[in-house]
């Protein structure tokens, strides 16, 4: 145990310092300062081991100290997996919906509509669906957050949803819907208008 009355001479302390470094150059300079300090202390006989200078950013520190619980990581993995499953399901449903409209789309093509116009029309239709699902997803997020805050674990009380997160959720819903629309719409418009009318 170190001499508690003379901690300034202790070979190791539990105190960690946080610094704000704005640029990579500042980080390099500070790391060099720490290495020089460690070498000076070793030369003075205070440190006995080789210099062990570490300078980690906030993300690295959070990972090293396991601040984020494994349950939160698992929940994120499940959420993104569920999003991927939903995209595939939506693509399948849209494919069926577009194939059922082959006659209508073939007629539009036969009357002079270009592939690009039909494709953009289908994307515009599903954009409305994307917006509705984004609003519904936002409401579900608020409901899920209210349920999570009733749990006894302390970190659930700190979970917050801000405007930036809602905007990102809306953008993800729109992008996911458009991604699910792209392949089915492309498959439908590639068909021969005459065969589409006959189907």
Automatic annotation (TrEMBL):
Keywords: Cell membrane, Membrane, Transmembrane, Transmembrane helix
Bilayer topology annotation: Multi-pass membrane protein
Domain ABC3 transporter permease C-terminal: 77-193
Residue ranges of the TM segments: 77-99, 119-144, 164-189
Subcellular location: Cell membrane
Molecular-function GO terms, alphabetical: transmembrane transporter activity
UniProt cross-references to Pfam families, sorted A to Z: FtsX
Main location: membrane
Record-level GO cellular component terms: plasma membrane
Protein name per UniProt: ABC3 transporter permease C-terminal domain-containing protein
């Amino acid at each position: 145990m170190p001499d508690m009355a003379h901690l300034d001479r202790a070979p190791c302390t539990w105190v960690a310092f946080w610094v704000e470094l704005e640029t990579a150059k500042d980080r390099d300079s500070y790391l060099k300062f720490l290495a020089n300090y460690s070498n000076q202390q070793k030369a003075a006989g205070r440190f006995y081991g080789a210099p062990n200078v570490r300078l980690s950013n906030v993300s690295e520190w959070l990972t090293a100290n396991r601040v984020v619980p494994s349950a939160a990581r698992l929940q994120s993995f499940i959420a993104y997996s569920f999003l991927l499953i939903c995209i595939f399901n939506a693509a399948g449903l849209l494919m069926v919906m577009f194939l059922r409209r082959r006659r209508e789309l073939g007629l539009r093509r036969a009357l002079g509509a270009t592939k690009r116009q039909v494709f953009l029309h289908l994307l515009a239709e599903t954009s409305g669906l994307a917006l509705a699902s984004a609003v519904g997803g936002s409401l579900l997020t608020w409901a899920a957050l209210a349920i999570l805050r009733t749990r006894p674990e302390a970190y659930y009380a700190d979970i917050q949803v801000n405007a930036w997160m809602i905007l990102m959720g809306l953008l993800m819903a729109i992008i996911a819907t458009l991604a699910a629309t792209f392949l089915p719409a492309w498959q439908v418009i590639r068909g021969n208008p005459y065969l589409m009318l006959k189907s």
